[in-house]
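Good morning N.,

You mentioned wanting to compare the apo and holo forms, so I went ahead and generated the holo version with NJP. This is what I fed in:
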Amino acid sequence: HNKVALITGASKGIGRAMSTLFAEKGATVYAVARSAALLKELADEANGKKGRILPAPCDVSDAEAVESLIGQVIREEEHIDVLINNAGLGHFGMIHELTEAQWDEMMNVNLKGVFLCTKYTAPHMIKRKSGHIINISSVAGTVTFPGGGGYCASKFGLMAFNDVLTQELKPHNVKVSVICPGSVQTHFSQGEPKDYALRPEEVAYMAYQMAAAPEHIIMNQLIMRPVVPQQLQ
Ligand code: NJP
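and this is what came out, ligand included:
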């Protein structure tokens, strides 16, 4: 509570659920995504909650935009307690069928976006010797499958990034964690979401537990999957 959180990919799905939960718990949430209209709607919904949601329209793959947004947050709040790198997307198909644009989009958002938000936030956390960066990866960052060539590459890359960041920030008392969800009912997958899939609120709940853990506890990594009904196995 009374904490400042910057959550990317906040206009939909998991990021939206995390923004709502963190605001309910009293945090000031800078909600980052490209769709300004959806962010405004989300902020209005949070009216009357203990905390608040501030729309922060920004493309996380745009270095100038990210640098200027984080500068603005620091001017307004003086610090960022929690950064959640959640914005991400997947294009699925055989490697030789993926287009260059699909490949670039996944790398630009899932990897470069995480790099940029971290690059401009970490120095403030290091200076204050306090903070927490939570990366939303995927089970696709732990196991590969046909059709996941670009997506798995981006999420395995994110896992390596997360590992290095954990080691670099530990001496500065800044926590780094990663959540690897399986299938979640969001806009992420084309077609109808599977009804046994995780709900975005369930992932948000775990992210909140990580962020709100006592100072002396760090939850490094969480892999969470839905239990697939037996008749579908
Ligand atoms: O997806 P979705 P999820 N700059 O599509 C935003 C991982 N994951 O919540 O910019 C800034 O409902 C977009 O906003 P907008 C997944 O890899 C998921 O499921 O307005 N924001 C929207 O708010 C990802 O890392 C599943 O279009 C950008 C949000 O990202 C994370 O969970 C399984 C942006 C995406 O919302 C959240 O995905 C899994 C940009 N350039 C991992 N581009 C799953 N759902 O099954 C997109 O293992 N956004």
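The pocket of NJP is lined by residues 8-15, 32-35, 38, 59-61, 86-90, 109, 113, 136, 138-140, 181-184, 186-189 (CB under 6 Å).

Happy to go through it together on a call whenever suits you.

Best,
F.
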